[in-house]
Amino acid sequence: MTGNRKWNNGETNNQNKKAKIVCTENLAHEYSRRDENGNIIEIVRAIDGVDIEVEQGDFIAILGANGSGKSTFAKHLNGLLYPTEGAVYIDGIDTTQKEKLLTVRRTAGMVFQNPDNQIISNVVEEDVGFGPENLGVPTMEIRKRVLDCLKSVRMQSYRKRSPNHLSGGQKQRVAIAGIMAMRPKCIILDEATAMLDPVGRLEIMDTIRSLNQEEKLTIILITHYMEEVTKADYVYVMQEGKVALKGTPREVFACTEKLTECRLTIPKITQLAQELNRAGLPVPGDVLSEEELLACLKI
Amino acid sequence: MSLILQNVSFTYDRGGSNEKQALTNIDLEIGSQEFTAIVGHTGSGKSTLMQLLNGLEKATEGKIYFHGRDIYEKGFSMKELRSKVGLVFQYPEHQLFESTVLKDVAFGPRNMGWENLQIELNAFQALKEVGIGEELFDSSPLALSGGQKRRVALAGVLAMQPEILVLDEPMAGLDPAGRQDIFQMLSRLHQERNISILFASHSMDDVAEYAKRMIVMHEGKIVLDGPPRKIFRYEKELKQIGLDIPSVTKVMHRLRDRGIEIDDSCLTVQESAAEIVQWYRKGAIE
Amino acid sequence: MIRDITIGQYYSTDSLIHHLDPRVKIAGTFLYIISLFTFHSLSGYLFAIAFFCGVAALSQVPFSYLARGLRPVIFMLVFTAALNLFWTPGESFFSWGIIELTWEGVEKTVFISLRLILLVLGSSLMTFTTTPNQLTDGLERLLSPLKAIRLPIHEIAMMMSIALRFIPILIEETDKIMKAQAARGADFETGNLIQRIKNMLPIFIPLFVSAIRRAGELALAMDARCYHGGKGRTKMYPLQYRLTDLLAYAVCFFYVGILIIFVP
Fold first, then answer.
1. CB-hemisphere CA count at 13 Å for A137?
2. Of A105, A216, B195, C41, which has the maximum CB count within 10 A?
3. What is the chain C residue with the closest CA to A111?
4. Structural domains present in chain A
């Protein structure tokens, strides 16, 4: 790993850690599986000692194959699950503090995988207003927020429509607007692109990138699509509940063997660069985009 | 040729308030031992076309022949067609319902009215082929992992002994390794059991790597049909209908655009790397 | 395609009646239905019909749509009519075998049928002019006093609106599962009743599993968006009476008042 200022994993005092937007300390989650008679047959350690620190405004990706524990991890960041060991701090608040639960959920909003199963209302704008309504935001303020948020995901022209008539990508954009309307500091996308077609995936990636850059929102993207993480500031790769790899996308993609072991594959462009590198061409093995590869070939 | 579509059109809710033409004048032949991809953006008619192939939807115009017989002819057995042309829907794991894996896979063969021994044998064999071990045969299909469920659902169609296997986005939602597993399994079925494979996909990288033929659909019509190597030359045309080309092929196209003499029809990483290395070394010598 | 189905029978247009507060429409319909039982004379019926026609004209819902609302109750209508026509004792004017028609019978039949028709038309006019969402909202507000006796009014309203959102999705899903099982050779059309019910299991079980999965995911999504029951909730579009709503209330009470005071 490079000696990056931000990612210095050395000694940081406790106060400092709590200043981060998201911080987990030796987080572990265990659950027991029971047979038909209620006897415990197995104790599963879905998350096993995860330490992650995210600063305000970062774009973080968490990669992992199905069953690597990444979704269980995500649910801890939103107070939907509680640690069985260790702790999670959202903007300095310990998520197990019951009376601060709504603050945690409002600060770190979560977008889920299935677009159909997270839209509650049958009118787009009323769905976006659902979060603020729950938080007791005054009526006029809700309407203003709803309009602003629909604009920032470019869905304002659909505000009176039924979500049933939207495409998958549009529905996910509505879901993002619904989170935005709670004025979060951080958005967690739990495999929010997994059920979309390539067009929908691009829509979502464009949306979150602009939210990250223009509105300075912290983004935590959980995915198994390698192409989506190339633009992230920092990547964590999860395997069997642990962080198996971490670093910038470049650093992570260079570890081809470890990624294969984690049931992941690197983007084809990077694969091509690595082949060329092995053949002795002046191309580094950590190329992320087509433009970069062409630039290396000096044409 | 085993499955032929002749000037087939399909309209949803004909004469109703939601009338919508989904397919227009489709001419298509699916032969034996093919490995074909259908591509097209959402709503291009891929799924509808697939449902016509085994008679789930009936063409509003045109004819479909299976082994030379008109499938809409009186006396033609739709049941047999559905076993010979196996259709695997998107997220097929959502249709699992039996109490055990083995029973669920036997559902199709049992509907065919085959003998018990035959049913059991087919179910057994199909599960082996998708890589589900015997220790899971008696567990509930709902207790399996996502990838296992998908393979059990696939076995449920395979157990009907299809000649053509039609799959609607069989890799949707799977992680990279899971996708690879499914494709390796399909390749094996294709080679060892001579099953013709027809799959819909959004991933051009997958199409480039596995398909021998690709059919491009747009607004209910087939706009391109041929080997991927030829079709991916039409980068501009594909882009116009919202489709991409494989990322390595795109690199080759860009090199070509910049006046470099290079074969830009490469589909895989290995091919492209070899081609670039060759060009680079030639340049170095000069 | 199936997602295009509409729940209920809302007729979309921009009329005075459409813009009324749903509470007015619910209360008004309730009053109207009660009013139908307060009179026993021809003039009363004429007045009730006139009132309905006036409101229907204001609503701009075509009569053919309104008439469609009668379709499900035709059997009941014919049945009650026949019952009254043949079994009312009185002055006979026609008899054939055991069938005997009386003047009293004819009168009773006409009046009871009219009452039934007005009752159905009146309530369908409400559903034609109010979206299911507005209806749920209106009911929640009207019934909110019942919260005092611990009836979960907010929860019931929330359940209704979620059901409205998910019914089209589940119908589409049913269609998909049916097709998937048909692709495996399932047959839903032949066999006796028990056989057919058994044949539906491959549809019902996956549908049930999927509904439970969706419910679980939706509950998580609602949690994540800070849902914690009706307490401390605000509304994006709170129901608020405007002048026209108050006028509409006045018209309704005026109508009922006239009926009770002047019409026998």
1. 23
2. A105
3. C221
4. 56-83+93-249 (3.40.50.300)
